[in-house]
Amino acid sequence: MVWEQDVAVEGICCRVVISDEADTLLAAKAAGRVIVGCLGGDGEKRLPMARYLVETMDAADAQYLERVVRRERGMPWLIGESERIRLREFVAEDAFAVPAEPGDSRDDQVFYHPEKLRAYICSQYGFWEYGLWAVERRKDGKILGKAGLTNWDDNGYLELAYHIFSPYRRRGYAEEACRLVLDYVQKEYNNAIAGICAVTEASNHASAGLLQKLGFAFMESECSGARHRYVLGGSYC
Fold first, then answer.
1. pLDDT of 9-38, one tens digit each?
2. Most confident of 4-8, 36-40, 172-176, 193-197
3. Which domain holds residue 27?
4. How far apart are CA 217 and CA 159, in angstroms?
């Protein structure tokens, strides 16, 4: 069973080959095609050459195929848009537009070193398909900060994380970005995760107020009260 589909992304047309036949997928991959393996109803096929797999042909809808093409061709996924901002995956070139700020952690430094950012994109987005995303101003493409999801713990919770760069704070961008993240979680994960948590410095009243506005409730203090944990709309197990 073979299905071929032309997928256009940002003006680039790519041929995607979807099949449950190993030989067909190997030949298509050798020819430079984007491939998706189809497991069939029983899900017992072995198609190790295919990075992407669907159970049935119907699962390979237009959105799915666009994301596959973007990942294979190194183009960022669009996470969501509001009136003023666009939330998208980082690309390595963004490192030149991300400023170093006082108090940046070692993890923050990944985003302003091109090679480190390239490795982050490959490992984080490529494996988890979520991470910290670029908050981009729609009118001029300016990167205002980052927002997204990180792993919280082994109980199935994800952590909402956000950081708006200092020149752009107190303009509502953090709330817009966080709402786009939460909308994405609702659409993409629904009941597949246990919930969403967040952490803020105890002294950061603005961040605490934003979390409460988004529907988070205080859960507990940590680090001798220096930081507070919040959980979205319910209790933490």
1. 988 899 999 999 999 999 999 999 999 999
2. 172-176
3. 2-73
4. 14
Does residue 219 lie in a domain region? yes
Where do runs of H (alpha helix) occur along the chain? 22-30, 62-73, 114-120, 173-188, 205-213
| 137 burial via Cβ count (<10 Å: 0-12, 13-18, 19+) | middle
User: In 3-state terms, what secondary structure has residue 17?
Assistant: strand
Is 89 found in the same domain as 124?
yes
Is the distance from CB of 135 to CB of 146 less than 8 angstroms? Answer: yes
The answer to whether 219 touches 196, Cβ cutoff 8 Å, is no
In a 13 Å sphere around the CA of 132, the CA atoms on its Cβ side amount to 17
- Which tokens is 77 given? 């996924």
Check: CB of residue 158 under 8 Å from CB of residue 193. yes
* 237 has pLDDT over 50: no
Q: Last residue of a domain, which of 47, 73, 99?
A: 73
Residue 141 burial by Cβ neighbours in a 10 Å radius (0-12, 13-18, 19+)? exposed
- The one-letter code for the residue type at 115 is E
Task: Count CB-CB contacts under 10 A for residue 92.
Answer: 17
Q: Are residues 59 and 116 in the same domain?
A: no
Nearest to 32 by CA among 20, 47, 15, 48: 15
| 189, 161 contact by CB (below 8 A) | no
Domain identity same for 125 and 148:
yes
Query: Please, what sign has the CA dihedral across residues 88, 184, 48, 40?
Result: negative
Q: 30 and 95 share a domain?
A: no
Integer Cα distance of 17 and 57 in angstroms = 11
Reply yes or no on whether the pLDDT at 1 is more than 90.
Answer: no
